[in-house]
Amino acid sequence: MTDSKIFRLFVSSTFSDMAGERGALHQNVYPRLRALCASFGARFQAIDLRWGVSDEAGNNQQTLNICLAEVKRCQEVTRRPNFLVLLGDRYGWLPLPYEIAKPEFDDLLLQLSEPLSLALLQQWYRLDENGIPSVMVLQPRTDEFVDPQTWMPIEHRLQTILESASQHLALEHRSKYATSATEQEIEQWVFAAENPTESVYCFFRTIRNLPRDRTAKGYRDLLDDGIWDQPAYEKLNALKARLRTTLPANCVDFEAEWANGSISPNYLDAFCEVVYKRLSQTIEEDLKAPTQKPDLWEKEIAAHDAFAKNRVQHFVGRAETLAQLDSYLAQYSNRPCVVHGLSGIGKTTLMARMTDRAQAAHPEAEQVCRFIGVTANSSDIRSLLEGICRQIAQRFGSGIAIPSDYRELVITLDVLLHQASAEHPLCIMLDALDQLSGQYDAPELKWLPLELPDHVFLICSTLPGHQFDILREDMPTADFVELKSMSVDEGQDLLRFWLTEVRRTLQPDQEAAVLRPFETNGLPLYLKLAFEEARLWASYASPVNLSPTIPGIIRDNLFRRLEDEANHGKMLCAHALAYFTAARRGLTEEELLDLLVLDDDYWEYLQKVSTAHRHVLLDRHIPIVIWSRLYYDLSPYLTDRAVDGTIVLDFYHGQLWQAAEKRYLQESQGALYHRQMARYFEDSPLYFAHNEQKTPNRRKLTELPFHFYNAKLLPQLIALLTDTREWMDAQFAATQGDSAFIDDLESTLPAFNDPLDAEGLLGIFRLFSAWQVVYSRRMSTIPITCNPSSGWGGKPKPFMRRACGRGWLPKFVTRA
Q1: Cα–Cα distance between 744 and 765 in angstroms, integer?
Q2: Torsion sign over Cα 476, 478, 479, 485
Q3: Spatial contact of 139 and 128, defined as CB atoms under 8 Å apart
Q4: Which tens digits make up the pLDDT trace of 90-110?
C-alpha cells in the first residue's frame, strides 16, 4: 500500500551537441526537483540514457530497444511531466533496426542491385526462425567492430543501404530506416500519445553564427567528407515543426552564441531556471491537486486481487489437484484445507487459480485472498489479521469495531467468521504461511482457526517443514492436498504458452534442452527460469547447457550470463545484487544508485572503465543507463512491492533471494554491505519537510535498525532505539500507533544469540511503547522506572543490568 507518487522523466535529446545542457540539468535542476518531490513524500527520477556514455550504439545493438522500453516505463508510472525533449541544430544518430521481419527484409533485398550492398546486409543480419514471425536480427559487434572507429563506417553504410531500399514502403514501415533515435522516441511518446500536452515539454536551442563545415563537428550533422548534411537538417526542422503544432504551449526556444570553436555557456543558468520553473510548476500542481485517497485496506485488497489475476494467466494443467480442491469447496466440512508442496512447485499459482474456482463454485460468497509476502502488510501477522478482519466486517456490514491489538484481533476474527451464513458464505485463501515474519510467534500458527463455523471455507498453503508439521499435529482432520510435480506434457504446454506470449518459439533440440532437466524435477519455477534463458536463444544458436536445479540455473546460467563482461560485468552484478539481497524490504532505484555511488570499490572500478571507454562521468553520479541496461535483463526476476509508502524492487521468489545471498553475501561480505547501507540510511533525513509540515522518512525507520543489527553494530542500534527521542517520535508517527510501533521494532531484531538479551531489548521496546502512549496524550511525566535487579515482569534480566550499567537506557527514563 502506498500513497507515494513517482515522477519519472525521460530525457530525449541528441548526444554530443546537448552534453552541456544535460550536464547542467543533472547538476542544477534534477537535485532541486528531487528535493521538491521528497518534501511531498514523492520521488523524482530523471532518465537520461544519453548521459554517461560516449557510444550511442552498444555492442549488443540493443540501445534503442532499451530506450524505448524506458520511454514506456515512464509513461506507465507518471502521468505528468514524463517526457523532456532537447533539440539543437543536429538531427542525430540514425540507429539500425535491431529486427526486420523476414518478408520485409526479402523485399528490401529485391530493391538492391549492387552485390556489395547485398553482401553487407546479409553479413550483418541473420535469420532467426524463433521469432514469431521469423525475423532478421542485427548481429552483435565483436572483434575489431567493438572499436567505434571501425564500426561507424559500417553502420553508416548499412543505414544508407536500408534507407535507400525502403523508399517504396509505406511511411509507417519506412520510418525505422530513416529517422533518428530521438525522433523514434518522440514518435512513440508524443505523436502516438492520446494527450501529450500535459506530460511533454520541449526546449529548442539555436546557435547563432554556427558554421556549416567541420569546425561545427558535434553540433551539426555532417557527411563523411565534412560537408553539411542538409537532408538531416530538413528532417530536424520538420520534427520541430510537428512538435510546435502538437504542443504549441509547451515548446520553449532559447539561443546560444558560437565563439572560438564552441558555444558560450552563459545561457545555461537561464536555461536551467526555465526548465525548473516549468517542471516544478507541473509537479506541484499534480501533488497539490485534491484527490480521493483510496482506503488503505481497500488498496491492500486490490494489490492481492491484482496479483492473483496476474498469476492465473499462466495456469496450465493440475487437473487432479483442482478436482481435490473443488471437492473441498463442494461441501461444508468445518475444517481447513491445506495445500503443501516443495518450493517452486507452483502453490501460489494454484492458489490464484482457486480464487476463480471458489468464486464460480459459490458466487454468493465473500472472498478474502492474501498472498503472504506480496505486500509488507501481508507478512506482518497483526496487519494481516487487521486487514482480513476489516474486509470481512465491511463486506458483511457487521459494524464490529476492529481492534489493533494482536490478541484482540485473533478473537475478533473468530467472531467475524460466525457472520457467514447459507445466503452469504465466506471463502478465505491464505497463500505461503511459511512467509510470515516472527512477531507474536506468528509462524506457530496459534492464530489460525482449527475448526471453522458453518458456511466458511479456508484454503491455505505452505512449504513442508515447521508450519506443515504444526498443521498436521493441530488439525488432524483437515484436508491435506499435496501439490506434486508437473508432468512433462504440462511443462511443454506451459513453456509454449509463455513463448507465444513473447512471440517466440524454440527449435526441437532447444526445447528438448529445456524439458530434459525439467523432467527430473517437475518444478514450474525451474521451468520459468529456464524459459527466461531460452527465450533469448536464436534459432541458429546451439542450446545452452542448463543446470538441472533451481539454485543451479540461477547461479550457473542467470548470474553468470549477467556477469559476463559482454553484458554487465561481475563488478556491477555483484554489488547491485548484494545491496538488493541485503535490504530488509527491497530497494528503490534511487537507493540502489546512491548506494553504488557511495561504494568506493565500485566507484573506482567504474572510473577505470569509463576512462577506458571514453565515457564521461559528471561528479560522483552513476549514469542511469548502467542501471537501465541491468534492469532490462533483471526485470523478469524482480517485482514491485508497496513498502513504507513507496514502491520498491525486490526478487519475485525467495529462491532467487537465497541464491543471491549465497553468491554475493558471504558472511564477511554481508557485514560490509550492511555497514554501507547503515551509513547510507543514517545520513538520510529523518523527516521530509514542506510548508512547515514534516513527514517521517519511513524508509530510514524501516532499514536503519535492521542494518545496524546485521552489521553487528549493536551499541549504535541500542543507542538509536533507546536514546533518541526524535527517532521514537518519528517511528510512532509513521506507524500510527503503539501496537504497530512494537511490531516494527520487534521484527527489526530476529533474535540475539543470548535469548536474555532479546527479552531485555523487547522489554525496552515495550517500555517505550508505554512512554509513547503517555507522550501522545500530552502528559508531562512518565511514571515508569527501571530496576536493574528485576527488569520487567519480576524476572532477573542480566542484560538489563548490563544495559543500565552501560548507560544504554534513555535519559528520560528514571533509573531506580
Answers
A1: 10
A2: negative
A3: no
A4: 998 888 999 999 999 999 999
